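Hey L., structure's done. Input below.
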Amino acid sequence: MARAMQIHRLDTAHSREERRLKGCDFIEIEVQRRFWWHMVASDWLLAFSGSAQEGAYIFQPKHMNVNFPSNTDDELLLATVVQQGFPLSVPTAFSGSIQRIKMATLCREVVDALPSILLDSQEAEYEVILALDKKFHEFIKDIPDFFKMDEESVRKNQAICSERPYITWQRLNLHFSFHTRLCRLHRPYHLEGITNPKYAYSTRVCIRSAQTVLELRKAMDEIGPEAGGYPARFWRVVQHVFLAALILATDVSFNPETPDAEARKAKVLAAYKSLEKSKQESGTLFEGVQRNMQTLLSTLQKQRPQVPVAPSETELHGTFVGSDEVAGTNHNDSRMDMQGGTIASGELDEIIMGEENWEQLWSEFVAIAPDLDVPQWNSLLEDVDFGSGWLENV
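Output:
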């Protein structure tokens, strides 16, 4: 529809000349720019997010000519003014969206620089990863001061955040997006970096960014709804919290004797609480997490035979949609519970989804983590799949 409306040609020389001769409503032009770049940014962010769409994008830069939207508040837009907006150093309601576009552009550059997903045997040169890492850090260094997370910047911009509460939410989102993707960039190397000094930097970056993701997730709950934040309802928040918890679990696995091992283990166990909150907010949202918990269960079963075989995804389908009946099973059937007893199939949804079992599952997983080897960890991380429904908002 956007192409049919010629939005991808919105700012060509021909279009600009036509607007000069015939006139136009520049508010409408600005809205079209915002709409277009929201679609483009979503596409490019998904191309490097660990989702099913990773490694490919639809919108080609050379196939469009659309200027960035203006950095301005809605009420300041004028129908008769061509150039509108403030420098990026001035906070507006659209400041977060502009940084989202910049982050998305960086994600597209990453996809272009890495080997094609169709070439399974080809791996990226580590120098390429380090060059992309440098771009990520240059990006976060150059963001406006009111979006920075260091203590001095946060303190200095308290008045701005009080006047514009959404800046706090945009700031958290921006850094959440940054650290999830920085972690994704280095993830293929972080296990090897434990024993190979060449990749040690990737190990440090992965662990540090995973810890930051969990800290940012906690901070999201501390801001009021007036800032626009309902983190438990966002697909990508749950997805990245889950992956960050697994990254930290690998650290516990390979470094169980370090002085802060128990503290790091506690962070992994704490992650389940935010996932549990997401379940309470949306049963449909929780389906992807539940499916991946089955991956963890399978891992546990290989290491601890007394843990029963988890029901298949098909059998759990009724649970995901909130039904009191499990598809494909009979209520007279029974299954083993986690303690080795039996439960009726009709109770299976409550057992699997119960908070105590979630906590037990995470505890079991962290306890067995030191026994997992590198191939098992790689298989676990690569098998995490949230399906095509996991949409990016940042």
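Strands lie at 334-336, 342-344. Residues 123-227 form one domain.

-- N.
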